[in-house]
Write a structure and sequence with these properties.
- The chain is of the alpha+beta class.
- It folds into two domains: about 220 residues, Periplasmic binding protein-like II (D-Maltodextrin-Binding Protein, domain 2, 3-Layer(aba) Sandwich), CATH 3.40.190; about 210 residues, 3-Layer(aba) Sandwich (D-Maltodextrin-Binding Protein, domain 2), CATH 3.40.190.10.
- The protein has 19 helices and 15 strands.
- The strands form five sheets. Strands 1, 4, 7, 13, 14 and 15 form a six-stranded mixed beta sheet that branches.
C-alpha cells in the first residue's frame, strides 16, 4: 500500500455520488449493502458481454472449470440479488463454468487456516490493509499477467488499485473504496436546537456538538465511537492521522511503533474528553461496527464514524430517515485550517494462489465481468429502479473502481442523475476529504492492540494515556515489528 496521503478533491465528481472496512469496512469496516456491483466482465467478446476485453490466450469457454466465489451475507438482500443476476449472465457467456457460492467472509484470523485446509474460495473479498500481508504469506495469487492483459487496466482508479500493487506485482482487484468520515443525524441536532456545524469543522466543533445533543436520560449519545473489535482502533486512527501522527515508521530495514507520539497522546486525550468531559458517548460504549451504525440508524446517537455509505444506507433504508436529515461530513480537523484526514480504505477481490491457472483466469474474468460494461451499468440501473419501487434509496460507493473522469465514469454519473432515490453527497464536504492509506505492516494487529487502550480510556477516568500508549507500542514492537525485515 502506498503511504502517501492524497487529497480527494479530485474525486469530487464521483464523490458527489458517494460511498471502510474494513477492518470490517473498517476498511472494511463498513461495506454498503447498496454498493454497485463491484464485480465484473471481461468476457471473450464485446458482443457476448457488452464490453470488450482482452481475450485469454486459449478459449476459456471450452474448459470445464469450477470456481467458488465470495457471496454476500444473508442480510444483504439487494447485493445477493445483484450477484445472482451476475452469475446468471456470466454463465450465459461461460456455460462451462460451475460457480459455487461461498458463505465465508474474509477474516485475518481465519485466512491461514482456510488456506492450509484448502477451504479458501477461488475468489474472495478482502480489504485495503491486507495486500502486503496476503502477498507475503503467499495467500494472494500474483495476477500481474492477467491484469496487464486486461483492456481496461489503465482506467482503473489508481487511488484504490495501487494499494494492491506491490513493487511491480498485482495481487488484487479494486471494487470500491471510501475515506472515513462522520455521518450526522441533523434531525437530532434540530430537535435539541443545536446548530449544524460547518463542513470545515474541527475537533472542538465535534466535541461541542456531541456534548450539546447528548441526552443520556433518553439514551441518546452525541457520538458513538466504536469501542470493541478491531474497528475501535480503526475509528481512533483517524484522529491520530489528523493530529499529524503515524502508526509506524519504516526505515533502515526496520519497522518501529510510532503511534505513542505526542500526536497519539493528543488524539487519545480527545477521546478522553468525549467520554469524561462531554459525557457524549453511549453509556454502553462497547460497540462494534454494526452496533454503532445500528444505533445511528435508530436515532440513538447523533454521530457515527465510518465509511459513509454503510451508515447512510442503514439510516435511510432501515431507519426510515430522510436524505436531508443524514449529512456526510469529512473527519474534523484537529485545529482550524488543518486537514480533514480520514483512513482511506476499500474492498478488494483476491484470487486463491492454490487454484489452477484456468481457475485463476476464470476467477479474474468473473471479478471484472461487469466492469466498464453496459450490461453491468444496466444492472445497476435496474437495482436503482427496484429500490425506487420499494421506496428505498440507492447509496453509491464514495470511491468507485474506475476513474471518475473516465468515459464510463460519466455514464455512471448520468444514470445516477436520473433518479431522485440516489443519495447525493455534498460537494463542499467531499472536496475537503483527505485520504490516508493504512499502515503497511500488521494493521489489524495494531487495531486490536489500540482497542485495548481505548477500552481503558472509556472505562477508567484518569487513565494514564501516555503509559497505555507506550505499553501498546512495546507490544506491537515485540510481537510483530521486530520480526519484520524490510528489503
Amino acid at each position: 500500500m502506498r503511504k502517501t496521503s492524497m487529497t480527494l478533491a479530485t474525486l469530487a465528481a464521483s464523490a458527489l455520488l458517494l460511498s471502510a472496512c474494513g477492518g470490517n469496512n473498517n476498511n472494511n469496516a463498513s461495506s454498503s449493502s447498496s454498493a454497485a456491483p463491484a464485480s465484473s466482465s471481461a468476457a471473450p467478446t464485446a458482443e457476448a458481454s457488452g464490453s470488450a476485453s482482452a481475450a485469454p490466450a486459449d478459449d476459456l469457454t471450452q474448459k470445464k472449470v469450477t470456481i467458488s466465489i465470495y457471496y454476500p451475507t444473508p442480510d444483504l438482500v439487494e447485493k445477493r440479488a445483484l450477484e445472482d443476476d451476475k452469475i446468471k449472465r456470466f454463465n450465459e457467456v461461460y456455460p462451462n463454468v460451475t460457480i459455487v457460492k461461498s458463505d465465508w467472509q474474509y477474516n485475518p484470523n481465519e485466512i491461514g487456516m482456510k488456506m492450509g485446509a484448502g477451504e479458501a474460495p477461488t475468489l474472495f473479498n478482502t480489504y485495503a490493509t491486507e495486500g502486503k500481508f496476503l502477498a507475503e504469506k503467499g495467500w494472494a495469487a500474483d495476477i500481474t499477467d492477467l491484469f496487464n492483459a486486461y483492456q481496461y487496466k489503465d482506467q482503473m482508479n489508481p487511488i484504490l488499485q495501487d494499494q494492491f500493487i506491490l513493487g511491480d506485482k498485482v495481487y488484487g482487484i479494486a471494487q470500491q473504496g471510501y475515506v472515513t468520515g462522520t455521518v450526522v443525524n441533523k434531525k437530532l441536532l434540530d430537535g435539541k436546537g443545536v446548530a449544524v456545524p460547518a463542513y470545515d469543522w474541527t475537533w472542538d466543533d465535534m466535541l461541542k456538538t456531541a456534548q450539546a445533543v447528548a441526552d443520556p436520560g433518553k439514551g441518546i449519545a452525541g457520538i458513538a465511537p466504536m469501542g470493541k473489535g478491531n474497528e475501535a482502533g480503526w475509528n481512533w486512527t483517524n484522529f491520530l492521522f489528523e493530529a499529524g501522527g503515524e502508526i509506524q515508521n519504516v526505515a533502515d530495514g526496520k519497522v518501529t511503533s510510532a503511534f505513542n507520539s505526542d500526536a497519539g497522546v493528543k488524539a487519545m486525550e480527545f477521546y478522553n474528553k468525549l467520554a469524561w468531559e462531554a459525557k457524549a458517548i453511549p453509556k454502553d460504549w462497547a460497540l462494534g461496527w454494526g452496533d454503532a451504525v445500528g444505533a445511528f440508524a435508530q436515532g440513538r446517537t447523533a454521530m457515527v464514524i465510518a465509511g459513509p455509505d454503510g451508515p447512510v444506507d442503514q439510516a435511510l433504508n432501515q431507519g426510515g430517515m430522510k436524505p436531508e436529515d443524514v449529512l456526510v461530513y469529512p473527519m474534523p480537523a484537529a485545529e482550524a485550517g488543518g486537514k480533514h484526514t480520514g483512513v482511506l480504505g476499500g474492498d478488494f477481490l483476491v484470487i486463491n494462489p492454490n487454484a489452477t491457472k484456468d481457475e485463476q483466469a476464470i476467477a479474474f474474468q468473473y471479478a471484472v465481468f461487469d466492469y466498464f460494461s453496459d450490461k453491468g451499468l444496466a444492472s445497476v440501473e435496474e437495482n436503482i429502479q427496484a429500490r425506487k419501487k420499494d421506496n428505498k434509496y440507492f447509496i453509491p460507493p464514495v470511491i468507485q473502481y474506475f476513474k471518475d473522469d473516465s468515459e464510463y465514469g460519466q455514464k455512471v454519473k448520468a444514470v445516477y442523475a436520473k433518479y431522485d432515490n440516489v443519495y447525493q453527497y455534498n460537494a463542499d464536504s467531499q472536496a475537503l476529504l483527505d485520504g490516508k492509506p493504512e499502515a503497511q505492516y500488521n494493521t489489524q494487529d495494531y487495531y486490536a492492540t489500540m482497542t485495548n487502550v481505548i477500552q481503558e480510556v472509556f472505562s477508567k477516568k484518569g487513565t494514564d494515556i501516555k503509559g497505555q500508549l507506550d505499553v501498546a507500542a512495546k507490544t506491537m514492537q515485540s510481537k510483530f515489528y521486530d520480526a519484520i525485515k524490510v528489503e
